[in-house]
Amino acid sequence: TKELGTVMRSLGQNPTEAELQDMINEVDQDGSGTIDFPEFLTLMARKMQDSDSEEEIKEAFRVFDKDGNGFISAAELRHVMANLGEKLTDEEVDEMIREADVDGDGQINYEEFVKMMMSK
């Protein structure tokens, strides 16, 4: 819950410990007590739809877009996921990029990010 709390706060949310535990229970499909990336995306998508605030989506995008160039690269995605305690192989990171990368440039732009968040 500590890492999730850190990420949620960086996205402008301020959940209590109990709310964090509820969030984990809500999306923790494999019952591991932790959230993997697909579960995290599901959680974020639900939160976004609850508030549906474009500002929050922009904020989430900025968390991933470390260098602020308007794109999420494989390296940036890997970095944020590592901070979430999710150690991914290059293959898994590439697969995640491919799933969201509509225009095929190998990175995720803001529009692709929004689509991905809204489609969950």
UniProtKB/TrEMBL annotation:
GO terms for molecular function: calcium ion binding. Keywords: Calcium, Metal-binding, Repeat. InterPro entries: CALM/Myosin/TropC-like, EF-hand-dom_pair, EF_Hand_1_Ca_BS, EF_hand_dom. SUPFAM superfamilies: EF-hand. Coiled coil: none annotated. Residues 15-50, 52-87, 88-120 form the EF-hand domain. This is CALM protein. GO terms for cellular component: myosin II complex. It holds the Pfam family EF-hand_7.
